[in-house]
Amino acid sequence: MTEKNGAAEKPLFANTQVSTSRVIHTPSAFARENLLHLQEAGSLRALAPHVSRRENLPSYLFFLVKDGAGTLSYGGREFSLRAGDCVFIDCRTGYAQATSAHRDESGRFDELWALSWVHFDGPTMAGIYEKYLERGGQPVFSCTAPGRRERYLSLVGAIFQLASADSYVRDMQIAARLTELLTCLMEDAWNPELTGSPGTKRLSVREVRAYISDHYGEKLSLDSLSKRFFINKYYLAKIFKEQYGYTVNTCIAQVRIGKAKELLRFSDRSVEAIGFDCGFTDPNYFARCFKKVEGVSPSEYRQSW
C-alpha cells in the first residue's frame, strides 16, 4: 500500500487485504473556510474479503466500483454493489462497506472489488447534499449512460493528480474539479435515465420544462400542462418543485422574462409587442412581472443596454 502527501510517495504499511494508492491532502486554512476541499482520494483493489466501517466522520464520500462486487450498509439500509455502481454519502452517518466473499469452483474469491474514491468537505456541503437528496439523489446509483462511468473516473483521477502535484493554486484547482463532480452527481439525481433508476414521472417533468421553453408565447398554466402531459396537477406541482426548486408558474415567468430580455436588447420591436410575443397579453402585467424579476421596467432595461 502506498500513500502520497503532496508529491512525495512512500510505503504506508503492509496489508494483505487491499492494495491501495491514495493521497491524503491537507487543505489550507483558506480552503477549509471558503472552498470545497479534498481530504483524501485514491483507488484500491481488494486482495481478500474485508469490511471497512466509519461513523461520525466530517466528510462526504464518493466512490465508484470499477470491478467486482460488494455491499454498503448506510442509513439502516443495505445496498448490493457491482461494477459501475456509484456511492455518494454523508459520512456523519455511520456506514460499512464490504467486498464480496464469493468463491469460484476452485475456491478462489472471484468478485473482490476495485474502487476509486474521494473524501471531501466544504462550508456549503451540507446544503448541497440536502439539495441532492431533494432532487431525488440516492446513496447508491448505477452509471448506465455512455461515457458516464469514464467521466466519474476521470474526475477522481484528476483530483488525485492535482493533490499529488505542487502548485500554489492547487486548492482552487481541486475545488473546481470537486464542483464538476458534484455537478455530475446533481445531473444524475435529476435525470434518472442516466443511472437506470425508475423515473417515469421525473422524465415527464423534464418534458414539461422543455415544453415551457419551446411554447412560452402560448397560454400556459399548471392546469393546461397537467392535461397535456396526463399528470395530476397537484402531483405535477409537487414533483416539479422537488426537481427544479421552483414552481411551474415561476418557471413560466422566468422563461418569458428571459426571452423578453433578449428581444429588448436585440430587436427594435415595441415593449408592448415584445410582451405579447412572450405570452403577456396585458402590457401592464408584463411591466409588473418584469420589474418584479429585474428590478427595473422593460423600457429602463432596454435603455441600460
Keywords:
single chain, 305 residues, alpha+beta, 8-stranded mixed sheet, 4-stranded antiparallel sheet, elongated, disordered N terminus
Give the SSE map:
Layout: E1 2-5, E2 8-11, E3 18-24, H1 29-34, E4 37-46, E5 51-54, E6 60-67, E7 69-74, E8 77-82, E9 85-90, E10 95-99, E11 114-121, H2 125-134, E12 140-142, H3 148-164, H4 170-190, H5 200-214, H6 222-228, H7 233-244, H8 248-266, H9 271-277, H10 283-294, H11 298-304
Parallel strand pairs: 1-3
Antiparallel strand pairs: 1-2, 3-4, 4-11, 5-10, 6-9, 6-11, 7-8, 7-10, 9-12
Can you characterise this structure?
The chain is 44% helix and 23% strand. The protein is an alpha+beta fold and 305 residues long. The strands form two sheets. It has an eight-stranded mixed β-sheet with strand order 2-1-3-4-11-6-9-12, covered by helices on one side. It has a four-stranded antiparallel β-sheet with strand order 5-10-7-8, with no helix packed on it. A hairpin with a 2-residue loop joins strand 1 and strand 2. Helix 2 (125-134) packs parallel to helix 4 (170-190) and helix 8 (248-266) crosses helix 11 (298-304). The radius of gyration is 25 Å and the shape is elongated. The N and C termini lie far apart (60 Å).
